[in-house]
Amino acid sequence: QVQLVESGGGSVQPGGSLRVSCAASGFTFSSYYMSWVRQGPGKGLEWVSGINTGGVVTYYADAVQGRFTISRDNAKNTRYLQMNSLKPEDTALYYCARDIDLYSHDYWGQGTQVTVSS
């Protein structure tokens, strides 16, 4: 069955960096666009970033453009989100998701917590 497993979250001070990963299994990873979606405390779901099948075309929400970088390694069935210049408002549970299209998704991971605080 389809499985998406995130890892790499944690706590960091403002201005710091973290990289979160998502390991995929149970489907042909290289055939799907993939996204990162987050949910901050007391907030709704927010789409963060997406990447096409080959990893060449990437998409970002305005809130993270220039600070976050999405990438994928199809040989390892893994996707990454490098987060730099982190801000307290980036605090959220970060989910990896398999795309139906850029803003809708059919499978989700369990999430990994990222906390940005001094």
The backbone outline, from C-alpha atoms, is globular
User: How many individual helices?
Assistant: 0
Largest sheet: 7 strands, mixed
Which residues sit in consecutive blocks of at least 5 with pLDDT less than 50?
none
Describe the secondary structure blueprint for this structure.
Blueprint: E1 3-7, E2 10-12, E3 18-25, E4 34-39, E5 45-51, E6 58-60, E7 68-73, E8 78-83, E9 92-101, E10 104-108, E11 112-116
Account of the 3D structure:
With 118 residues, the protein is mostly beta strands. The protein contains no helices and 11 strands. The strands form 2 sheets. Strands 2, 4, 5, 6, 9, 10 and 11 form a 7-stranded mixed β-sheet that branches. It has a 4-stranded antiparallel β-sheet with strand order 1-3-8-7, with no helix packed on it.
Give a brief outline of the structure.
The chain is mostly beta strands and 118 residues long. The chain has strands at residues 3-7, 10-12, 18-25, 34-39, 45-51, 58-60, 68-73, 78-83, 92-101, 104-108, 112-116. β4 and β5 (45-51) form a beta hairpin.
Q: Which structural traits does this protein have?
A:
7-stranded mixed beta sheet; 54% strand; 11 strands; mainly beta; 118 residues
